[in-house]
Amino acid sequence: MKKLLVMLAFMLTLTLSACELDLDWNGESNRDPNYVTHGELESLVSSLVTASVTEGEIIAIVQQHIPHDLTEAELVDLIQSMLPEDRHTTTYDLATFQSDVVDMLESRRQSVIGLQVQKIGSSSVGSGVIYKVDNSAYEDGRHTYFVVTNHHVIADAQAITVVYERFGILNEIPNDNVELLGSNATTDIAVLTFQSSETFPTVEFADSYAIRPGEFVFAIGNPLGFSYYGSVTMGIISGTARFLTVDDFDATVIQHDAAISPGNSGGALFDINGRVLGINHMKLDQAQAANIGFAVPSNTVERIVRDLEEYGFIIRPFLGITASPYFSDCDYEHGACISSVVAGGSAEAAGIQAGDAVIGYKHEGDEEFMDVFNFNDLREHILNSRVGDVVIIRYVRNGEYHESDPTTLGSHPDD
Fold first, then answer.
1. Residues 224, 261: contact at Cβ < 8 Å?
2. What pLDDT shows up at residue 250?
3. What's 180's domain CATH number?
4. Are residues 168 and 288 in the same domain?
5. Judging by DSSP bridges, how do beta strands 231-246 and 249-256 pair with one another?
6. pLDDT on residue 386
7. pLDDT of residue 18
8. Same structural domain for residues 135 and 242?
């Protein structure tokens, strides 16, 4: 009944609208009495059409009761565009979605290579990710490819052989064509190059600050050696800012549950668009733990790679504060609650005090602050900066918001 009343009201109002007259300067009508303007139609539809009106009824109204100068398709599109949101239907084509993901992963597998590392008295297998190519070819047609991997994969290496796959067959690039540019134990990142006349695609890095728990991820690497070369596993982001201190490692990592094993180290963690979110670092190898893996975030990787390419080593920037990574004693709902400030450090120069809650961080010249929800966020932002960068800190003190004076990051005292 409600549907019928709406249709009757709709048709009646249209009839009345069609009878309205526009007058010229002589007081005579200059308007086609059968013409309904676009504005009138839009107003009527907005006020009368409900989600209960079907597409067939819309077409019937258009065909039978609306003389107009628009096409039928234009009117149907107009009416449908103003229907309530719950009237719209979305169709998901899972076959196409799966095909797109499979195609993406097939192309990205060519960017993830194997590393056979000879050490004194032992050897090991790991993975690496090709992120850049120098297109200046050698006389024999070789190009130089840049690879990021884990420091622990190549530590103490006497020789490194690059292994790649074509048509299911493994091939080797010998050690004399491979050069280690530098590595860093603190972030577990290393950079090497190799020369080859083969063509390899390079990867694009994602913005790891933008990830959220629940996003799909795909790990590609060589678990347990080259018998499982190029294995692909799938999972989700479990945590965006976990801070690990294991042996020399001391950095923020991404937690995910894509299956990884020894040999995956140095391999890529891709997002659903095929961009690298991180470099797989390790997993928790405990009987009571399952599917807890970690990757060095892509923003950290990009920053460390730049220094390793340029200098062969890194010097960590230092703000000069301490805080708890888990709990906050500050009277504020989020932020890094500062426990102490190092005398003579960059934080002191910026006016930061113990008890402040740091909630934002940016480089001088940037328009927007990056959010700081906890101490791990702040540590990651600092690590992703460089010594000598000028930064500004946003913080809360006694319930009031402040922005610090610009301050220059110094070098970490342990480097």
1. yes
2. 84
3. 2.40.10.120
4. yes
5. antiparallel
6. 92
7. 42
8. yes
**One domain for residues 98 and 234:** yes
Cα-based angle 268, 269, 274 (whole degrees, multiple of 5): 95
Percentage, residues of the chain above pLDDT 90: 61
Contact between 70 and 35 (Cβ < 8 Å): no
Which residue type does 248 have? D
The residue behind tokens 């050698």 is 138
Domain that holds residue 106: 92-314
Could you tell me which of 390, 384, 316 has the C-alpha nearest to residue 346? 390
**What's the rounded Cα separation, in Å, for the pair 318 and 148?**
25
pTM given for the model: 0.73
Reply yes or no on whether the pLDDT at 29 is more than 60.
no
CA distances from 26 to 22, 30, 314 (A): 11, 10, 86
User: In this model, does residue 87 exceed pLDDT 70?
Assistant: no
Evaluate if residue 373 carries a pLDDT over 50.
yes
Residue with tokens 């134990």: 185
User: Does 8 have pLDDT greater than 50?
Assistant: no
Q: 410-411 and 317-318: which strand pairing?
A: antiparallel
Contact 76, 59 (CB under 8 A): yes
The reported pLDDT for the residue numbered 413 is 87
The CATH number of residue 370's host domain is 2.30.42.10
Q: What is the bridge-based pairing of β-strands 249-256 and 178-184?
A: unpaired
What is the count of structural domains for the chain? Answer: 3
Dihedrals phi, psi of 70, to nearest 5 degrees: -95, 160
* Cα separation, 278 vs 301, whole angstroms: 7
Q: How confident is the model at residue 24 (pLDDT cuts 50, 70, 90)?
A: very low
107, 164 in Cβ contact below 8 A? no
CB-CB contact of 254 with 240 (8 Å)? yes
Which amino acid makes up residue 297? P
> What sign results for the dihedral spanned by CA atoms 343, 349, 354, 359?
negative
Q: Report residue 274 as tokens.
A: 């095929």
My answer on whether 227 and 297 are in the same domain is: yes
Q: Please give the C-alpha separations between residue 371 and each of 354, 375, 378, in angstroms, as whole numbers.
A: 20, 11, 9
Q: Which residue has the higher pLDDT, 34 or 194?
A: 194
